[in-house]
Amino acid sequence: MEAVGLRKELADLERRLASTTGVPNDVNQLRQRLEKYSEILDLMDRAIYIRAADGGLRLEDRVYHREAFLSPSPSGVRAQWHGDVLDANSITLLHALAPVRTDSRDVPPVGWRSRFDAVYSLADGEILRWVRTPFIPERRYYTRELPYYTDMSKDKRPQPLYLGFHWDGTLHYWTLATSEGVLGSVFAECGLERYERSGPADLVELRLGGDWIVRTNTSIEQRLSALEEILERELGRRIRFQRRSVEREVIVVRGQYERRPLAGHANTEPVYLFAEATPDQSGLRRRESITQMFQKVASRFNRPIILETQGLDEVFVEYQTCLSYDTWVARKLDPKDPFPIHGGEALDPVLANLTKQTSLKFARETRPFNTWFITEIKEPSSGNPSNPSPR
């Protein structure tokens, strides 16, 4: 939806809410209204979650941990905000409200870590765990110790909505995101690249609010089998993962590696990943093997890379991404394409610029490739989503 249309539809919904004199008696009507509110608001930079409660609507900003209770009033909408009551005519008032402040910093209670570990530790034989929302209070104390927070900002940064962990008998923090996790995120946590899976967008983007813990000394098959069981038990949905060999486009690397610094550029040390005539404003810089660098390119363009040149995993380089590599114009992807790609027009120039700097040759070819396909069985399952297993 275009931004102008989104703003208009959001404004229309706000006017409807402001004129509401009560909660509809028809439960389906209420559900449809709330789903529509959530659908529109989730497209905004920060999603607001809405649910019916006590004859009104409760709004929750999970990024900045703010809540408001809205109910009809003669002037429009009455908002109860942490003990304060104010009238307004827009549900976007939540964004204008200041974050909750306390007189002193929240001090972790004694024994918080043991309570955290009790929830975030895998049992013997357990391969995968989903720690669902609402999060335990001890999680907040754990996140303060992560590199994501600095001494200057740890009390101001929002709590992450998604954490991924590896488990080998000890918990190891692995992934952090300020957005809610989806099924595609869990696939990545299980060790699969984006180009190694294919499925309809509504399944790949299925929201799975909470954190995930993966046992390290297990196979992809074991992890995905455990994921199937969790989704059926917790959500009552029979989502299945099947690996098949399919013909698809891959990037083949050939030739002999020979480093050639980019001519006419002040800093000749890094290999630049860019799609323009010359490197533009630069982004992240890393030092990894050539193989690891190419895997980043594979993930960026959702295409596997096949190395026919030996020894590239033993050659380490410094490389830097550029804006023309990292950014692209958003376009609607073909829903029939099993391997969609944003900004695919940049792939050929990126590969050409890599050839200039490494002497390697790149070809886009169609080859068989093992891919995990995501499907859903629509028959009723034995799962009981209304009574999920305890965390």
Task: Give an overview of the whole structure.
The structure is a single chain. This protein has 3 domains: about 100 residues, no CATH class; about 120 residues, no CATH class; about 120 residues, no CATH class. Helix content is about 25%, strand content about 30%. It is built from 11 helices and 16 strands. The protein has a 5-stranded antiparallel beta sheet. A 4-stranded mixed beta sheet has the order 6-10-7-8, with helices on one face. A 4-stranded mixed beta sheet has the order 9-16-11-14. The two termini are about 40 Å apart.
Unreliable sequence segments: 40-47, 89-104, 386-391
**Radius of gyration, taken over Cα atoms and rounded to an integer in Å:** 25 Å
How many domains? The number is 3
Sheet with the most strands, sense and barrel status: 5 strands, antiparallel
Number of H/I helices: 11
Features:
disordered C terminus, alpha/beta, four-stranded mixed sheet, 3 domains, five-stranded antiparallel sheet, 391 residues
Q: What are the SSEs and their pairings?
A:
Elements: H1 3-18, H2 27-41, E1 48-53, E2 56-61, E3 66-73, E4 76-81, E5 84-88, H3 93-96, H4 112-119, E6 128-132, H5 138-143, E7 162-167, E8 171-177, H6 183-189, E9 197-198, H7 201-204, E10 210-215, H8 220-235, E11 238-254, E12 271-273, E13 282-289, H9 290-300, E14 305-307, E15 316-322, H10 323-326, H11 347-358, E16 361-377
Parallel strand pairs: 7-10, 9-16, 11-14, 12-15
Antiparallel strand pairs: 1-2, 2-3, 3-4, 4-5, 6-10, 7-8, 11-16, 13-15
